Please model this.
Amino acid sequence: METRFPQKASEKEREEILKYLEDRFGIEPFYFEKYEILRGVSNFWLFPKTPYLEKLKGLQVQTVGLLFLRQVSKYLKPTSAFLQRFGYLAKKNIVSLSEEVISTLKERNKVEIELDLEPGYVILKNKHWILGCGLYLPGKLFSYLEPKVLKNL
Model:
């Protein structure tokens, strides 16, 4: 399934995305200075800055760069792949999961838990690794971890 090369995000979109990452996770914008942000219909990719970007736009591609955000309704949801690579830079909205909570998430993808966090997407980690993305709503934590990640816990 080949598609057109994604378009470069506008400067306004780039600023909004970087502000979201800083506000939500404390990841500072300067970490992304060496990357372009490319945009599809509802997906965003990180792509290394290159003087050849204009020449690449004519290519038919399946995927480009690192898919790092999806637009879900009016919200931006970070991908687990992005969080596993860049989540170590985050300073907030990180949920360290106990073995008990991990077991519950493996069974149901949801656990009832009260956290001192604002509702929204969070980084899920165990004692060793950043696992991926979750969604915290008051009293509930939903896992968006990939089955292969859960299987290996």
About this structure: The chain has five helices and twelve strands. The mean pLDDT is 89. The helical segments are 11-25, 53-56, 80-86, 99-108, 147-151. Residues 3 and 13 are 22 Å apart (CA to CA).
